[in-house]
Amino acid sequence: MTLPAVSPVDLSGAEALRAQLDAKAKPLGALGRIEDLAVRLGLIAGGSPPSFDRALLLVFAGDHGMNAEGVSAYPSAVTQAMVATFLAGKASANAFARAVGAELRVVDAGVDAELPSHSVLIDAKVRRGSRNAAVEPALTQAEVESALERGAGIALQAAEEGFEILALGEMGIGNTASAALLMHRLAPAPLAGCIGRGAGHDEAGLARKIAILERAAARSAATEPLEVLAEFGGLEIAMMAGAIIGAASAKIPVLVDGFIVSAAALVAIRLVPAAKDYCVFCHRSAEQGHGRLLAALEVEPLLALDLRLGEGTGALLALPMVRAASRLLSDVASLDDVLNGRL
Ligand SMILES: O=C(O)c1ccc[n+]([C@@H]2O[C@H](COP(=O)([O-])O)[C@@H](O)[C@H]2O)c1
Ligand SMILES: Cc1cc2nc[nH]c2cc1C
C-alpha cells in the first residue's frame, strides 16, 4: 500500500502567530478558542491562512454486513435512499452546505447497490457493503488498503482542484457499530463505553447492539490499525481515514464531523500520527462514546450541540468559525494602529 507522506506542522511559527493576535484591536485573548484555532490554521498554512472560501464537503457512503444482525434501528436501504437524497440536493447536509457556502460531493465507498452516475457522485466503490463483522472479518486486507488509497487520492485530487479545506461526513446505516469497535481497540477503551444508540435505538435495541458487538469483539484480539479495520470495517470509515491522510499530506485542514468521522480520524492518527495536526474536531455529538473518543485523542471540539445526524452537518456548522478565525489574522487592525489613528 502506498499512502502519501505527511509532515507534522512546524510549531516554530506559533509564537509569531500568537504575537500577531495579541497585537490586534481587542483585549488580550478576548477571542478565546477562536484565537487557538487561528494559530492552528496559521501553522497548517505555514504563514497566513487562506480565506477558506473554497470548501468541499465529502460525504462517504457505505453499507455494513452487520446490519443483518439488527445492529441499527434503521434498515440498510436507508443508506442508498439518503445517497439519492444528497444527489437530489435535499438532505440536511445539502441545506447546510448551501447555508455556509460549501460544495458537496458524495463518495460511494461501498454502498450495497449499483448507483447511477451523477455529476457530484464519486464512484470509489471497493465492494457492495462490508461483510458481517459479528461472524467474520468485515473486509480483507486488500480491501482495507484499497479504501485507504482511494480516500487519500480523493483528498489529493480536491486539493489539486484548489479546495482550501475539506469537511468530512458520512452516511452508512450500521456505521456507529463499526466505529464503536474501532474505538474499543484503537483508543483503546472498554467496549461498553464505545456503544451508543446510533441513529435511534431504544433500550431493547441498544441491549441487542451491545450483545452483537460483544460477539464481534470476541472473534478477534486485533489491536493494530490495519487489522482492526479489516476485522470491523467499514468501507466509508477506512476511506475517510485515507482522505484525512491525503488532506494532511496536501497540508489542508480537515473538518472532522461526529462520532464516525472521529473514529476514522482515530484510525488515521494511529496509522500516521502527524495527521492529527491537520484535523479540526468540529463538534461533540450526542452519541455516547464520542466524548470519550475525543478525550482519548486529547482534543477539544469546537461545538457541542447534541447533533447526532452525521452527513458532515456538524463540520459544516464549524466552517464559518474557521473562516472567521482566518479573517482575524488577515482583516483585523492592530491596537497600536487604532490608538494612533492609522485606520
Ligand atoms: O455523527 C454522529 O455522531 C452520528 C451519531 C449517530 C448516528 N449517526 C448517523 O446515523 C447512521 C449510523 O447510525 P446506526 O445506528 O445505523 O449505526 C449513519 O448514517 C450516521 O451518519 C451519526
Ligand atoms: C433518515 C436518516 C438519515 C441519515 N443521515 C445520516 N444518517 C442517517 C440515518 C437515517 C435513518
Automatic annotation (TrEMBL):
Catalyzes the synthesis of alpha-ribazole-5'-phosphate from nicotinate mononucleotide (NAMN) and 5,6-dimethylbenzimidazole (DMB). Belongs to the CobT family. Its EC number is 2.4.2.21. Pathway: Nucleoside biosynthesis; alpha-ribazole biosynthesis; alpha-ribazole from 5,6-dimethylbenzimidazole: step 1/2. GO terms for biological process: cobalamin biosynthetic process. SUPFAM superfamilies: Nicotinate mononucleotide:5,6-dimethylbenzimidazole phosphoribosyltransferase (CobT). Pfam families: DBI_PRT (PF02277). InterPro entries: Nict_dMeBzImd_PRibTrfase (IPR003200), Nict_dMeBzImd_PRibTrfase_bact (IPR017846), Nict_dMeBzImd_PRibTrfase_N (IPR023195), Nict_dMeBzImd_PRibTrfase_sf (IPR036087). The active site is at residue 311. GO terms for molecular function: nicotinate-nucleotide-dimethylbenzimidazole phosphoribosyltransferase activity. This is Nicotinate-nucleotide--dimethylbenzimidazole phosphoribosyltransferase. The gene is cobT. It catalyses: 5,6-dimethylbenzimidazole + nicotinate beta-D-ribonucleotide = alpha-ribazole 5'-phosphate + nicotinate + H(+). It comes from Caulobacter segnis (strain ATCC 21756 / DSM 7131 / JCM 7823 / NBRC 15250 / LMG 17158 / TK0059). Keywords: Cobalamin biosynthesis, Glycosyltransferase, Transferase.
